[in-house]
Structure formats: C-alpha cells, structure tokens
Design a protein that fits this description.
- There is one protein chain.
- 0% of the residues lie in helices and 55% in strands.
- The protein has one domain (13-346): Methylamine Dehydrogenase, Chain H (7 Propeller).
- With 350 residues, the chain is mainly β.
Length: 350
C-alpha cells in the first residue's frame, strides 16, 4: 500500500507570502491547518528559510504593485521567527532597492539578495551575513533588473536571471565579480542541478502586453555551466515563470496561461499548468492544472510534495509528485491583488 504523502510531516510548516496581505501565513503541512500569520510592511515578495538559525528571510520589494508597475521600490528585508511568528528585525539595504530573489549558503552563513539598478549603478546582488544580519558588499550583474537568483551547491557561483537583458549573469561569489553572460532572450525563474553542472532557466521574459507570435519559443533553457552556453531547451506550451528542482531530481515549471486583455497588462487569466520533467534525462513526466498565475514553487525535503503559489487566485496548490494529483488547495488572505507569492518549507526542529 502506498504511503500517504502527508505521513510523518507533523510539526512541519509551510510559510506563504501574501503580497497585498501584507502577511506571511503559516500552515501545518500534515493537515493544512492554518496556524496564524505575521503582518509585514508592504510589499513582501520572496521567502528563504535558514535552517541553521531557523529564521525566515522575506524581501520587501515595492510599496505596491509588481515589476514594471509598482508604487516605488523598498529597501528592506524582514527577518521572521517562524516558531513565534514575529518579526525579529527589519534589515535596511539602502541605498540598494527592489530586493527580490534570495539564495542561501548555510555553510558560509551568506544570504544573496538580488536588487534592481539605479541611475548610478546596474542591478546586482547584495551579500548579507546571516549571523550579524548586515550587508557585506554587492556584486554587479550588468543588468537593470536581476530578479531571480540561485547559487550552485558548492556556494562558489551564482546565477541571476534578467527580465529585460538578453543574458543570464554569472558571478563568482568568492571574488565578487561578474564572470560570464549566458545568451538567453530575457529570463524568469531558474534552478541549479545538484552537481552544479546545469542551470535550468525559464525564458523568454513574461511580457504579456505584446503579440504572442512575436515571442521566442517558450520553455526552459538548459545551460552548461562549464561553457556558459545553452545546450538544450525543454519546450512548454506557455510562458514559464517559476522553476524549481526537487531533492529527487524532478524539475518543476509553472506555466502561466492567459488570454490577451487590452485592459490588463497581465492579460485575462486561465488556469495555469505545473509541468514536471526528469532533470537528468531532460524528459517530460507529466503535467496538471493549477490555479491562476503560478508564480512560486517549492517542495518538501523528501521531494514528495510540491507547493505552487498562484498569485492572481491567491491560492497554494499542494501536489503529490508521485501521482501528479492535487491533494489540497490553500486559500491565502489578501486585501486586493496581487496575492500568494513567496514560499518556504520549514521542517520541525530536530
């Protein structure tokens, strides 16, 4: 008899950002029971859990809105204790602004935060010491808006995707310098393979305002990190934003499906799709329908459950990756649009 995907998860918690909440909500993963939330300053976007210090980091990206349509950029990160569900500190990165992507090196105690550019500097990545919670420096990415950021398992190399710039920025984290540019036609989410040899990049950039026939083919570009070149493309039916790699080697991609709407930059939303690939074989395993505008994906440490945050419907779909079936849908409170965004899986204390 197949074991339930919820077995053994008592005490594990899923943290979920609501951009317009503005909140971070907590749910028990064994039962989907709502545990409470913490109010945060507007407008939270991404989450990252530090398992060493058992703290959540949350980017406070804009005063309202989203990339290209916001009420001004913020400069802060919120540090949250998931056990007591309270903010323990607000870390100000000023003059850096528009913090978004988060990547953690728990061994070295370094948090990497992508930030948007200004008139006097390009976009970049701020390096934060997770013990002192203070910035240590920044790495230029030579692009105006690095939005998503990931590092290799060794903590030596980082990759920033850039919405407008036609390349992925490759940075040396030890030397703090840009080392390469991988030619990609504008890009969104990304994930690095367990051996650091490949990077999976969603492209092209999700611009829903132009004619679809003028876009480059949608899919996931496969980048060989040794040569910094695209060596393959995993095709998708629609624009992909979030990309996530599970501990079991499943590559998850959130496809956004829209119908053009002259009154909305994002178009009129149709149900999205979660596409699942086997990363090492670069082959599709299947897909299933999810809610409106999948924007963030994470998974349980054992790779059995996926969590897909859908920002327009403000829901999180919980998916059994062995059966490719939705087992739950969480409603995330919001005051308006947008809604559910950043996700973090918080295992119970050892």
């Amino acid at each position: 008899m197949q074991q339930s995907p919820r077995a053994g998860r008592e005490g594990d918690v899923l943290a979920v950002v609501s951009q317009s909440g503005p909140t971070v909500s907590f749910f028990e993963t064994a039962s989907d029971r709502y545990l409470g939330d913490v109010q945060v300053p507007a407008e939270p976007h991404e989450l990252c859990f530090d398992p060493v210090r058992r703290m959540l980091w949350c980017t406070l990206t804009y005063h309202s809105g989203y990339y290209h349509a916001n009420g001004g950029r913020r400069t802060e990160l919120a540090v949250i204790d998931p056990l007591t569900r309270r903010i323990v500190e607000i870390v100000d990165l000023a003059p850096e602004h528009g913090p978004h992507g988060l990547a953690l090196d728990p061994v070295r105690g370094r948090l990497y935060v992508s930030v948007e550019g200004a008139d006097d500097r390009p976009g970049g990545v701020v390096v934060v010491d997770t013990e002192t919670r203070r910035p240590l420096g920044r790495i230029d990415t030579d692009a105006p808006g690095p939005h998503w950021f990931a590092i290799d398992p060794a903590g030596r190399t980082g990759y920033a995707t850039n919405k407008e710039a036609p390349f992925v920025s490759v940075v040396d984290l030890d030397r703090g310098v840009l080392t390469a540019k991988v030619e990609v036609p504008g890009s969104e989410g990304l994930a690095v393979s367990a051996d650091g040899g490949l990077v999976f990049v969603a492209a092209p950039y999700a611009d829903f305002s132009g004619p679809t026939e003028e876009r480059p083919p949608t899919g996931i570009r496969v980048v060989d990190t040794r040569t910094a070149t695209v060596v393959d493309t995993l095709p998708t039916g629609d624009i992909v934003l979030p990309v996530h790699l599970t501990s079991t080697g499943r590559l998850l991609a959130g496809e956004v499906r829209t119908v053009p709407d002259p009154d909305s930059r994002l178009g009129r939303q149709a149900p999205g799709r979660l596409s699942v690939f086997r990363a090492d074989k670069r082959e599709r395993l299947g897909d299933l329908e999810v809610d409106l505008f999948p924007l963030t994906i994470t998974s349980s440490p054992d790779g059995r459950l996926a969590f897909v945050a859908c920002v327009v419907s403000s829901t999180v779909d919980v998916v059994d990756l062995e059966t490719l079936e939705r087992v739950a849908r969480l409603d995330i409170a919001r005051l308006g649009e947008p809604g559910a965004h950043g996700l973090a899986y918080v295992p119970r204390p050892a």
